[in-house]
Automatic annotation (TrEMBL):
This is UDP-glucose 4-epimerase. InterPro entries: Epimerase_deHydtase, NAD(P)-bd_dom_sf, UDP_G4E. The lineage of its organism: Bacteria, Pseudomonadati, Pseudomonadota, Gammaproteobacteria, Lysobacterales. The keyword NAD applies. The keyword Coiled coil does not apply.
Length: 324
């Protein structure tokens, strides 16, 4: 297959390009390089374009007949989305509609879409499955949920087959250290813990120690980026035999608190983590843990690299010596 990866210069997208390439598929990356990295595109060609540029999109689709599209391009910071919602809806929703139109014009009928646990909002049960109420608390989560709705409508109107994969906390890096997580600015917990160990960015600030969790800090479900990539590949195969718009949670089903992450980093790196307790960050639910039974049953997916030690070992290798 020849797969177009929108956002393939970004964190999850670049691991996807590697995974598809290793599985013997051809890859083209489309990325505007606003948050992605040219150096992360090591598998397949790079087309530098923005999804808001319909003419550029049409040109890219006219040059190659893609068999499927994987779509990772998005603005994805929860806090930022609250302060600049127009940019989030334009990039995430309008950009995706442009992509879908370009696909339709060339009769490309399969899409795997990067969605998020942020579509659920405040958890109403300890484990979140796909039927959990969807009440996003941020424009970011709302924009992803809107796209999911567009995908359902596109299935009914045009026969588009799609899978929306709702990630919990993507983490870790490629085992051989050639690609990894490189956000500027970095807001995510595991990179920030490692940066504090490396003396970059000052002491880690822990956002809130007064949650109703066993140690008072927030609990999250960390899933290795290579496990996410594997799930996308499985979802693509799934669409060969399934009409319609589908959604799957991707998490490992086990929660770890911020303090547990810090303790694991101390153990794995053998270094102290300089940190201080701070105020809660607005919009953070106390606990977010996925029920991923549907992905396991229907996609045959099993997270293989998502033990917290494995995640942190791979992230540590990357952050100690990042290639970009
Ligand atoms: N945290 C800190 N200090 C930091 C960074 C994070 O204490 O420097 C805490 C956060 O408050 C949170 C936990 O660590 O409790 C994890 O935070 P991340 O920013 O790493 O991840 P989030 O759970 O906030 O966000 C993730 C994805 C989003 C997605 C969201 C779903 O990154 O894309 O889950 O709610 F929208």
């Amino acid at each position: 297959m020849h797969v177009l990866i929108c956002g393939g210069a970004g964190y999850v997208g670049s691991h996807m390009a590697k995974c598809l390439s290793v599985a013997g598929h051809e890859v083209t990356v489309l990325d505007n390089l606003r948050t992605g990295h040219r150096e992360a595109v090591k598998w397949g060609d790079l087309a530098v374009a923005d999804l808001l540029d319909e003419r550029a999109l049409s040109l890219i689709f006219s040059r190659t007949q893609f068999d499927a599209v994987m779509h990772f391009s998005a603005l994805s910071l929860v806090g930022e989305s609250v302060t600049m919602p127009y940019e989030y809806y334009a990039t995430n929703v309008t950009g995706t509609v442009n992509l879908l139109r370009a696909m339709r014009a060339r009769d490309v009928r399969r899409l795997v879409f990067s969605s998020t646990a942020a579509v659920y909002g405040q958890p109403q049960s300890p484990l979140i499955d796909e039927d959990h109420p969807k009440l996003p608390m941020s424009p970011y989560g709302a924009s992803k949920l809107m796209v999911e709705r567009v995908l359902s409508d596109a299935a009914a109107a045009y026969g588009l087959r799609s899978a929306a994969l709702r990630y919990f906390n993507a983490a870790g890096a490629s085992a051989d250290g050639d690609i990894g997580e490189a956000h500027h600015p970095e807001t995510h917990l595991i990179p920030n813990v490692l940066r504090s160990v490396l003396g970059q960015g000052g002491r880690l600030k822990v956002f809130g120690g007064d949650y109703t969790t066993p140690d008072g800090t927030c609990v999250r479900d960390y899933v290795h980026v290579d496990d996410l990539a594997d799930a996308h590949l499985r979802a693509l195969h799934y669409l060969n035999g399934h009409d319609g718009a589908h959604a799957f949670n991707l998490g490992n089903g086990q929660g770890f608190s911020v303090r547990e992450v810090i303790a694991t980093v101390q153990r794995v790196t053998g270094c102290d983590v300089p940190f201080e307790m701070g105020a809660r960050r607005s919009g953070d639910p106390a606990v977010l843990v996925a029920a991923s039974a549907k992905a396991k049953t229907e996609l045959g997916w099993e997270p293989r690299h998502s033990g917290l030690d494995t995640i942190i070992e791979s992230a540590w290798r990357w952050h100690s010596n990042p290639a970009f």
